Amino acid sequence: MLYNSFQFLFVFLPLCLLLYFAAAKVSGWFANVVLAAMSLLFYAWWDPWNLLVIAISIMANFTMGLALRSDRAKFKKGLLALGVAANLALLAFFKYTNFALANWAAVTGRHFQPLQIALPLGISFFTFTQIAFLVDAYKGYATELGFFRYVLFVAFFPHLIAGPIVHHSQLMPQFAEPGAKKWIPANVHIGIAFLTIGLFNKVIIADNCAPWANQVFDSPHPVCCLDAWRGALAYTMQLYFDFSGYCDMAIGLAMLFNIRLPDNFNNPYQSQSLADFWRRWHMTLSGFLREYLYIPLGGNRQGETRREFNVMATMLLGGIWHGAGWTYAIWGLYHGTLLILNHVWSRLNLPLPKIFARILTFLMVVIGWVMFRAGSLHIAANRLQSMFGLQTGPSLARPKAAGGQFAILAILLLLVNFAPNAKQWTESRTLSKKRAFFLGVLFFICLLQMCGTYASRAPQPFIYFQF
Amino acid sequence: MERLQPIQAKSVPSFGLVWLLTVVGASLMFPVISVLFVNYYKSEDPAWIDLLYRQKHVALQRRASEPRRLVIVGGSGALFGIDAELIEKKLHIPTVNFATHAGLGLRYLLDRAERELRSGDIVLLAAEYETWPDAYRDSEGPAFDYIWTYDKPYLASMNRIEAAKMISAVPWSQWPRSTAGWIDRIHGDYFHFRELSFYSVATLDSSGDIHVTAPSAKSQPPSFPFPGDPTLPAMQSIRQFGSFARSKGIQLLWTWPNIARPATLSQPPGFLIDRLQSSGFVILDQPADNAFPPDWFMDTPYHPNPCCRRVRTEELIRRLRPVLGLPPAPQKVTGLFLLAGTDHRRTDGNTFADHPGVVFRYLSPEPGLDAISPEAAAQLVRGGTPVYTDSEEARKLLASADLTLQLQSRQSLSIPEWFAQYPSCVFCVAAPPNHSLDPIWKSAIPNTIYRQLATGAASAAMFSAGAAPILGGEINQQRLQSNAIPCVVSIHTVPQAQIVVDDREFVSSPAGVCVVAIDPEMGIVVGSAIFAGGANLETWRLYRVAERTASGRAL
User: Fold this and answer.
1) How confident is the model at residue B554 (pLDDT cuts 50, 70, 90)?
2) Which of B323, B349, B371 is the last residue before a domain boundary?
3) Cβ of B22 and A441 within 8 Å?
4) Do the Cβ atoms of B404 and B544 come closer than 8 Å?
5) Mean pLDDT value across residues A219-235
6) Which among A69, A145, A244, A350 is most buried, taking Cβ atoms within 10 Å?
7) Of the listed A168, A282, A322, A335, which one is catalytic?
């Protein structure tokens, strides 16, 4: 069940709200139980077998979290290491087994037959969420440990599949808050605004950019320079509007239940540097990697060289987290390298003109997305060569169509550079009747697009669902 | 971990209600606006289907007073593959080819036919195998486009859930296109078949038959694509159509579609036969009976060339005779008619209406089920069987078997008689340089035009007979003004005469005067001829095949 499906918007969500607020009339605890059950139902909708994986993961982590409240330091340290290792092993098994075996087979020259391992949806996210929980429990930050609230903390459906990655301390107090079990119109209005803007970004913008990007990246042949740039820019827009649209919807959905999820995007394409970009793009993942990987590795406390090493290791692992493929590893290393260059440049104290820094950062990000999107290193190299005129190929689209796409991409570029994001838009103005009408029309346009599109094919999943 | 900051937003209390009302209101209004507004005027398939249906409706109306009519229903396989005019001539029953486009799907084809049928009619259903799925649900398909553009009332007759699905399936991208469609329509710019190659509505005749020929694509299906699912909604439509026919006293006949012979011949599924028979259909043949060599088909494996259509229709007529209460055709072949090449047209000479024992075969060096070799034809000739042809291409093939052609009969019309066949038509005339014109033309055409044509100079003219309204037209790329006809112009730069109708070259000749007659009501060409000189026009010839003597003369 996707957020951008009719069954979610018109069946699951209204039913869930109805049951939750009806249960809240009985007790807050019961409302949490109902919401946790509905979240697990939402998760099981894709594949009931996935429920087994998440159930085992939740119970094991919750038990370890309880044990980590112990006062025996040595035991706690060992238990934490065991817990983190078990979570990573689970993730590695589902996500990286075939990748590792394929590489091993390539090195040894053996035939490789992929194992039938279905990746449970959202495993990267709920694994990281629970690793963070174990670390917080170890440090004594995770003090609230009601079981159903814990289940809800991990499985709360707005963030379960693709984030934002949440901290125990961010969500648990909200689930315990009795005042949050009431229908609060102000929060509902915010929820509607975020939900509508997110749906529009996904259904109208991202899904319509997707075919342009697919045309360029799915072609096995070399493409011309303009096509390569068209594909790269289309994917740049698709990815941003898809993921930020998803996150806006997640925040909006959570707000309907009076739950505040963390922000995940802050106009990343307006960044002045790569370091700035990573403070604005997928902020909860960046925060997680910084807190639970970069800082434990030593951060910037052990000299410049070690710092650059830590950056590189963090970005490499961040890249691999996205998927089991060399393109993701290269993409991570690319960003690691750029961040190191960013640090070196900062030390030189030679500030670039803001507009130049912004354009340069954007171009570096676009080049990175080419590696991220390409199905193989060969295609990535091929498209990059085309972008820089090192090779060419036949044009994939008629000039008029390509021109139209570039015009729309230019409009989107203006949007990402100058338009407010969902949070800025919502906070900077009163949600008046006029704006309710405007958002209602936007929502209806999304429904129309969904009707037209889904008549011939299924709803397009969010890109980050695959991670 | 820092606490999350709340989202600082101000809202009016009615925000949620206004949002909800907007979404609900738009959702309720949308279907109404959609039904009124959405169109596919800029697509060729709906326009083609619309023209077909309009003219077929006229063809049925022309036979409205007949006590019984044979109505052929199906997709373009039946449109291209069954000759209604020939059936009418040979079985003496008014016949209309009501077949249009397989993309409409069987349900729509039957529903549409129901609107036209009357008590006493006979329906001959020849539906392509691919018509069984629900075509109008496919928002990329011609049925969807056609219904949205030309048959919106059909939405009201649909099951409500299906209609809702159909309304909601209009792609968002269709709205700007619909706007452009309306603008074109308001300006009177109807779709022109510039891209439809040989699909010209100008070749439809008054029986609803189409007369075109095109090179063979030689496509061949691997097997008969029978429907595999007895639960298809179209199966239910067959049952409903059967009930409708019973209530109206309509007789139902079924013939399997003509198709390029598949590599594997298979039998239809039992459930399909059961459904057809239980719905009242009399099944006339087997699927393999109507499978012909792929060479005989034009652009698709369902579109036979005119020769194949003649063979297919002749066989169909033999099967129809007993079903329609006529004596069956004799088992013994009393005559043989040979077809050759790719083009063929029924004439009074080759109809053999009163000779049901005459069979039609394709003359080919490679004999097959439906073809006969020159040697086999020679054997029949020697055995005394009358063998006929009207094809000049047959002459070359028969020569290899020492056979020749003997003129058996011919028909010609005087110039005034030819024009008198079309008492209320618009005529386009194109005369090449240095043509000759018999003085008898003077009594057939307006005087001003005759005077110009009689000079022998390259000329073009348009005039009407009877109370024909004015048609738009162009002469030598110069658009005629309204009320411009009769008109005639002298042209100095053309090497030959040529007339183009509906963007399709209709007749051309370097020496003869070309004429086409256009029915102004239907907007189609109803007759054409090239007058090569003299006072008469030969309309057809019939040859009898004979053995060649040593001196080269017919025996």
Assistant:
1) very low
2) B323
3) yes
4) no
5) 91
6) A244
7) A322
Residue in chain A closest to B27 (alpha carbons) equals A444
Tell me the chain A residues in contact with residue B12 when contact means C-beta distances shorter than 8 Å.
430-433, 436
Q: Please list, in sequence order, all residues whose beta carbon lies within 8 angstroms of the beta carbon of residue A47, skipping any fewer than 6 positions away.
A: A118, A120, A121
Beta bridge partners of B478: B475
Residues on chain B bordering chain A, Cβ-to-Cβ distance under 8 angstroms: 1, 3-4, 6-23, 26-27, 30, 137-140, 165, 168-174
Q: What is the pLDDT of residue B503?
A: 64
- CB neighbour class for A303 (10 Å; exposed up to 12, middle 13-18, buried from 19): exposed
Alpha helices in B295-334 (DSSP H): 306-323
Which residues in chain B have their CB less than 8 angstroms from residue A136's CB?
1
Query: Please, which residues have CB within 8 angstroms of residue B403's CB and are 6 or more apart in sequence?
Result: B374, B377, B378, B381, B545, B546, B547, B548
Q: From the CA of A237, how many Å to the nearest CA of chain B?
A: 20
CB A271 within 8 A of CB A240: no
pLDDT at B248 over 70: yes
Active-site residue, A322 included: yes
Same domain as B316, residue B341: no
Q: From the centroid of its chain, how far is CA B230?
A: 30
Q: How far apart are CA B313 and CA B81, in angstroms?
A: 7
What is the pLDDT averaged over residues A114-131? Answer: 85
Examine the pLDDT at B218 and tell me if it is beyond 60: yes
* Closest residue in chain B to residue A455, using alpha carbons only: B169
Of all residues in chain B, the one with the smallest CA distance to A208 is B173
Residues B98 and B147 in one domain: yes
**Residue length, chain A?**
467
Per the CB < 8 A criterion, the answer to whether B397 and B374 are in contact is yes
Of B18, B27, B165, the CB nearest to A433: B18
Residue B39 lies in a domain: no
User: Which range marks the domain in which residue B499 is found?
Assistant: 417-539
Per the CB < 8 Å rule, is A430 touching B11? yes
CB contact under 8 A, A451 and B168: yes
Nearest CA in chain A to B7: A427
Residue B406 lies in a domain: no
Tell me how far the alpha carbon of residue B238 is from its chain's centroid: 24
Q: Which of B23, B138, B165 sits opposite A440 (nearest CB)?
A: B23
Amino acid in the structure at residue A161? I
**pTM for this predicted structure:** 0.64
Chain A neighbors of B8, CB-CB under 8 A: 427
- CATH of residue B179: 3.40.50
Domain boundary among the residues B370, B401, B432 is at B401
Place B359 in a pLDDT band, splitting at 50, 70 and 90. very high
Distance from CA of B138 to the nearest CA of A (A): 7
A444–B13 CB contact, under 8 Å:
no
Q: Is residue B87 part of a domain?
A: yes
Structural domain contains residue B316 = yes
Q: φ and ψ at A33, to 5 degrees?
A: -60, -45
Average pLDDT over chain B reads 86
Compare all CA atoms of chain B with the CA of A259 and give the residue at the minimum distance: B6
Axis crossing angle, helix B15-37 with helix A433-454, rounded to the nearest 10:
40
One domain, residues B453 and B357: no
- DSSP code of residue A241: H
pLDDT in tens, A7-37: 899 999 999 999 999 999 998 889 999 999 9
Task: Identify which has the larger pLDDT, A97 or B159.
Answer: A97
Answer whether A431 sits within 8 Å of B15, measured CB to CB: yes
- Per-residue model confidence as pLDDT tens digits over A335-391: 999 999 998 888 888 888 999 999 999 999 999 999 999 988 899 999 999 999 888
Residue B484: predicted pLDDT: 61
Q: At a CB cut-off of 8 Å and minimum separation 6, what does A311 contact?
A: A294, A336, A339, A340, A343
Q: How far is A171 from chain B (nearest CA, A)?
A: 9
Number of domains comprising chain B? 3
Residues B246 and B300 in one domain: yes
